[in-house]
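thought: fold this chain, then report.
action: predict
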Amino acid sequence: MDEEIYLSSWLVLLAQLPSKPSSARVALWRRMRTAGATAVVNGAWMLPRTTAHETFFEQSREDVIRRGGIGFVLRVSGPSPESDESIVRLFQSDRSREYDEFAERCTAFLNEINRESTAEKYTFAEMEESEQDLKKLARWLAKIQARDFFPDERKDRSNDLLAQCRRALRGFSQQVYKVEGVRGVRRGMELSHYSRARTRRALTLSAQSPRAPRRASDNGRALSVKPVHLCEVLRGWKRFKGPGRDG
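observation:
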């Protein structure tokens, strides 16, 4: 993260949308997950306190109101260091699931490279397809890490896995160049840029900001308060929503 994250200081978005259309709630859920927010109770989303996150929550709150809902953005503090650690574990658990899925995709990528190598399918088409798959893996990992506010060993393992995929593709590409009679590959050159230019040549020869958050008011459409304990906020939110009401 470019911004410093302050432990014991959190942002909570309380959002309640009409039950219909359901697409509004789905859109909010996707927006929160993309940003790395974690759900603490139904309709309550949390992020570490930074200026960027405060702006994001404020914009999300405004969108909730435009859709006929109710929204509040609060600064809260954990009631104890143990509570802060529990909150951090929630974020890490969310990222853990994403890192695990990323690892599965990397394993599938490596298995595919091994199958193609065993079958000696050293063709430009296979190489280009694998390059595109590797690009997708790299973009996906960058998105996961951008919302990994409390990284642990899984981040390093994922970086190692991506590096392993790069090495496997580099070795496969070397074999493609050898089979196709393309010489002069420089080690370390960006594969996607190099192979695309070489592929086109070989085929030719042989025949491809954010607004600052508004000041809060007390009209129910925005709320800014002194830091309060998270448990107090969630208890009040549950009483406000009542049992069985959608978030």
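thought: worth noting. The chain has two domains: 6-77+214-241, 92-206.
final: tokens above.
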